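Morning. Coffee machine broken again, so started the prediction first thing and wrote up yesterday's gels while waiting. Chain of 311 residues, entered below exactly as on the submission form.
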Amino acid sequence: MLQQRTLKSLTHAVGVGMHSGQKVELTLRPAPVDAGIVFRRVDLVHPVEIPVRPDSVSDTRMASTISAGGDPGAPKVQTIEHLMSACCGLGLDNLIVDINADEVPILDGSAASFVFLLQSAGIVLQDAPKRFLRVLKPVEVRQGEGAKLIWARLEPYHGFKLTFEIHFGHPAVDATGQRTTFDMGSGRYKRDIARARTFGFTKDFDAMRSRGLTLGGSMDNAIVVDDSRVLNADGLRYDDEFAKHKILDAIGDLYNAGRPMLAAYTAFKSGHALNNLLLRKLLDDRSAWDIVSFDDASQAPPGFAELAPLW
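Came back before lunch.
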């Protein structure tokens, strides 16, 4: 049987929120079978639990935000996508995330720190089948026309494969790989995707900070690009780091389904909002998906039964 996974022990991290700039403490705890991934706002007088599922997503501007009951006015947790991406990349099904603020810490701007934390705590198998959301027919969302066209698509696939193409019309970004593909069955999430950092442009910073955004952003937790070049002294971690970060985000956004997906995802200039729209469109069509598990792990997609090796 291909089994569910949780942590062996708890682990702890402290960092700053990318948008709030506030110090955040995070504790990752083991969770029972079929619990899913649940965030708990432990800073509130009465702690509030927010399970990760599609109807919990209440805001997709600049990040993926979940809130209690999906109510934008209820207690929320912002910027969950990098942690969710790490959970998906390691095949983690059940996790409790205690957090003392409304935003997940950005750490180094990628998913690598979360992968390290989760693996340091240890990942264990649980006595219950791992359940997948299997896409049965193509589903697509499109917005805009011509130069403003963006789209994202899911198709049937025995595994989880993602292809993303970017187009920013910026010399520093255009000089890197614009299209990249990653197959989760390769077992190389940690090596090929997890270290890709979020990025931002200096021309946008003043406007964003005037709106209370990116207050915690710096070259320690993001790729920073001016009108012509990458400003980070160490340069890029991958030749196609911009496109790979978009894949990292998409993995996290799609894991908001509450379970791993069996599908091929292809996107052009998509982001958190369109990824969530795609997920909702899929789930609204009951003929487009089903839930499957594998009593015989050898029948699962290649690479899905193995635990990722430690760093």
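The mean pLDDT is 95. Going to sketch it on the whiteboard this afternoon.
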